[in-house]
Structure to design on (84 residues):
């Protein structure tokens, strides 16, 4: 059942919908990428998808490096187990 113009909420304008494009992100989603909405401050700092991807890749590398630093070795546990 189609709703007419009279059935729309007052805050919506028909002119706002003319600019929308159906299926705009479908090819990217079908290719396996994700569409993410960024907060305005974040979008200002990272204006392109390339900038976002570089920042996230750097964060992953840093996370892997710091995980190795803080991980306890298994040798220490064996020594303690033998001493007990």
């Amino acid at each position: 059942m189609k709703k007419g113009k009279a059935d729309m909420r007052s805050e919506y304008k028909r002119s706002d919908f003319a600019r929308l494009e159906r299926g705009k992100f479908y090819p990217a989603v079908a290719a396996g990428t994700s569409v993410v909405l960024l907060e305005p401050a974040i979008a200002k700092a990272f204006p392109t998808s390339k900038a976002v991807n570089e920042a996230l890749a750097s964060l992953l590398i840093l996370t892997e490096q710091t995980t190795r630093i803080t991980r306890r070795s298994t040798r220490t546990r064996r020594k303690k187990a033998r001493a007990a």
DSSP finds five helices and no strands in the chain. Residues 50 and 59 are 14 Å apart (CA to CA).
